[in-house]
Design brief:
The chain has 161 residues and is mostly helical. The protein has six helices and two strands, in the order H-H-H-H-H-E-E-H. It has a single domain, classed as Up-down Bundle (Bromodomain-like), CATH 1.20.1550. Strand 1 and strand 2 form a beta hairpin.
């Protein structure tokens, strides 16, 4: 069982994950900024974190494993965001991940015209910034901090029992 401070960290991580998802959908649907495929993929760890934290409260005896799993989820989020930042900064070339909707299937001329009319967002284009930082950069900061906190909680879990 975690001590009160560590439980509060888990609650804060839940709140941050919830706010991150709500903010992403607000920016997309209310403010009208279209996300790229990597931006959409960067939302997945936050949704997974919400589910894990809810399961943690349901299955309290597996708490240590849920914390480890959360730590791995946010580590994966960090790596995905670093990859995205590399594309944004031009260090890495865009891959097929950035163009998931254009699969290798043969398209009719109507489908090609429809795709040309759709506004596609490249993974290297930053369409929205907060405090001069792209959402990818903010995601890196949040993910790294969350990974560090969760790793410390996991490593000190036995001491705090």
């Amino acid at each position: 069982m975690l001590n009160l401070i560590q439980k509060n960290y888990i609650r804060i991580i839940f709140l941050v994950s919830f706010v991150a998802l709500i903010s992403a959908y607000f920016i997309e649907y209310v403010l009208g900024h279209q996300p790229c495929n990597l931006c959409l993929m960067e939302r997945v760890p936050y949704a997974i974190a919400l589910v894990i934290i809810i399961l943690n409260y349901k299955f309290n005896r597996l708490e240590k494993y849920f914390i480890l799993l959360l730590s791995m989820v946010f580590l994966a989020s960090t790596l995905l965001s670093l990859y995205h930042l590399g594309i944004e900064q031009g260090f890495i070339e865009e891959s097929l991940v950035c163009d998931l909707q254009n699969s290798s299937k043969i398209l009719s001329k109507e489908e090609i015209l429809k795709q040309l009319q759709e506004k596609r967002v490249s993974c290297k284009d930053v369409t929205f910034k907060i405090f001069g930082l792209s959402l990818t950069t903010l995601n890196i900061i949040i993910s790294i901090l969350t990974t560090i906190v969760l790793t410390k909680i996991y490593l000190s879990y036995e001491k705090n029992k």
